Backbone:
């Protein structure tokens, strides 16, 4: 282990700063000395970053941020320079205790023979932090192996699966949070206006983009060594295949007098197909340089990484093909995202069962636990298993989401789930606190913004909540209907029924019963009886709104003002719809 530490620190391709190198040396030496239990944020801050005994991780996140960067440094090192090292050092998320793993690569068989193969070494996870694990030939298969197995089923499957996670014939598997998540590599951006300042700006945007992408759950992000010969000369798609990733992001920039032009593309590493491209123009001054760099990186990361973004859309298409339709835990989480666009009762139980199996199969997969928390919350608030099961389902959801947060304290999906569950349990302040924490961690994710905006607006804080919801909508390619509901309610309270109807109709994309209620209320106020009647007819006759609309909206944490306005508007709409026309 000490030799591996020396090997890493002496290698020029290990990109960590001096402080992060000291961080790595400290935690490895402490673990090897039997003091792993001391490796908490406070101890690291004092020993490595020069903080005093008053250090507070809540107000000073230096250890957490540098740990994230150090994990990325290690991942990048093991992609290339350290790919054949006999030992691998990693730092599991949510901990500062290093993990040591033996690397025993298995030679890839010739897949053209149709036999079973495991193309690359499999890294078995240690049973305890700081322990050493071996990867015998019978160890759990890596996702790369699963992909190759699918590829052997059919030629079409091979063509599609080739770019999925880690490609065949590569001798090392890149360690990540979860082996079943796809990987993205962000290559160095090219400065078309060739001077040192533009080179620094190009690299600055790329590094910010990597950092912003890492805030999104569901995939791993890698960077080749900066300035490395391979990164500078290889074709982007070929390099991505060599690195064993699913997607590759490239970019270029040029500057003119007072302006900056950036072009970005994302490729499918298996086929070379351009999945997305974007161009961005910004005014550029010395004073705005850092802000422009941050804004551009955040905007690009949002387009690519959000739950309904480019990567998610491509994965959804792949999931419809035979080659990937049986992908396990990761695809369960993606299915859950799809279900949560419209909360369809028909989709609920299959997705719930899939997630329950996922956490049994991969008990350390925090995203699956977080989504399971969401599903149990839905079972309660939508009465999928009956009104008498509501509190039981809330408690199950709370336990699952709490488990996710224990596994990964900075997981925004887990924070959002626990925020929502606390809200529905009546813990409104805690729900808001967790939602704000999620936005702090990932301010570029529209879904995270929408969760906070909804939470604020439903409790009557429209002045802060509505602008946040509008920001989420602007950043989402195809926003789910619930993003619009509280905006329509705000317009109801203001008496702006024309705009309310427009917003409510936009929210009805997924057939939501709440959308139909809002349409009926607005249409009635505008004298559009047929529209109101049609909306009321869309409401399920035996659903919770039909049984007791007031209780339904109160259950969602709505204020008395909101509940009373909806109850009065719905009663008026029903009366108007049932009155015979003259």
Residues:
């Amino acid at each position: 282990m000490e030799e591996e530490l020396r090997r890493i620190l002496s290698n020029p391709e290990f990109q960590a700063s001096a402080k992060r190198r000291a961080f790595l040396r400290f935690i490895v030496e402490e673990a090897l000395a039997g003091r792993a239990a001391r490796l908490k944020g406070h101890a690291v801050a004092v020993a490595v970053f020069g903080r005093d005994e008053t250090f507070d991780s809540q107000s000073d996140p230096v250890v957490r941020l540098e740990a994230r960067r150090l994990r990325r440094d290690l991942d990048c090192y093991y992609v290339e320079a350290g790919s054949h090292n006999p030992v691998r050092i990693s730092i599991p998320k949510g901990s500062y205790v290093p993990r040591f793993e033996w690397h025993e690569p298995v030679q890839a068989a010739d897949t053209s023979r149709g036999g079973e193969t495991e193309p690359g070494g499999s890294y078995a996870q240690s049973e305890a932090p700081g322990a050493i694990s071996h990867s015998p030939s019978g160890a759990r298969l890596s996702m790369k192996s699963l992909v190759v197995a699918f590829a052997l089923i059919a030629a079409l499957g091979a063509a599609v699966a080739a770019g999925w996670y880690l490609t065949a014939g590569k001798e090392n598997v890149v360690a990540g949070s979860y082996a079943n998540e796809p990987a993205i590599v962000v290559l160095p951006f090219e400065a078309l206006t060739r001077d040192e300042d533009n080179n620094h700006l190009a690299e600055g945007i790329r590094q910010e983009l990597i950092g912003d992408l890492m805030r999104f759950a569901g995939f791993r992000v890698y960077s080749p060594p900066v300035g490395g010969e391979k990164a500078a000369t290889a074709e982007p798609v070929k390099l991505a295949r060599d690195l064993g990733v699913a997607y590759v992001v490239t970019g270029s920039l040029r500057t003119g007098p007072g302006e900056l032009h950036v072009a970005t593309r994302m490729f499918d590493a298996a086929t070379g197909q351009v999945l997305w491209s974007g161009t961005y123009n910004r005014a550029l001054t010395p004073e705005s340089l850092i802000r422009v760099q941050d804004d551009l990186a955040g905007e690009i990361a949002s387009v690519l990484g959000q739950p309904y973004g480019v990567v998610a859309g491509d994965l959804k298409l792949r999931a419809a093909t035979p080659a990937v339709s049986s992908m396990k835990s990761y695809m369960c989480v993606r299915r859950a995202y799809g279900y949560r666009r419209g909360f369809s009762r028909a989709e609920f139980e299959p997705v719930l069962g899939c997630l329950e199996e996922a956490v049994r199969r991969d008990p350390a997969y925090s995203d699956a636990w977080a989504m399971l928390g969401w599903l149990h919350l839905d079972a309660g608030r939508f009465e999928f298993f009956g009104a008498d099961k509501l509190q039981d389902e809330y408690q199950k959801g709370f336990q699952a989401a709490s488990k996710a947060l224990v596994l990964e304290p900075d997981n925004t999906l887990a924070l959002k789930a626990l925020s929502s569950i606390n809200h529905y349990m009546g813990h409104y302040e805690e729900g808001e606190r967790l939602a704000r924490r999620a936005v702090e961690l990932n301010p570029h994710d529209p879904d995270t913004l929408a969760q906070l905006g909804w939470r604020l607006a439903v409790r009557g804080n429209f002045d802060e909540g509505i602008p946040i919801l509008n920001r989420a909508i602007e950043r989402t390619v195809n926003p789910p209907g619930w993003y619009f509901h509280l905006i329509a309610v705000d317009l109801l309270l203001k008496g702006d029924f024309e705009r309310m109807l427009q917003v409510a109709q936009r929210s009805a994309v997924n057939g939501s019963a709440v959308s139909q209620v809002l349409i009926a209320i607005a249409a009635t106020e505008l004298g559009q009886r047929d529209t109101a009647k049609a909306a009321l007819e869309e409401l399920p006759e035996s659903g919770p709104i039909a049984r007791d609309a007031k209780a339904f909206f109160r259950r969602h944490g709505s204020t008395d003002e909101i509940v009373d306005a909806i109850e009065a508007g719905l009663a008026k709409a029903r009366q108007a719809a049932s009155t015979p026309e003259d």
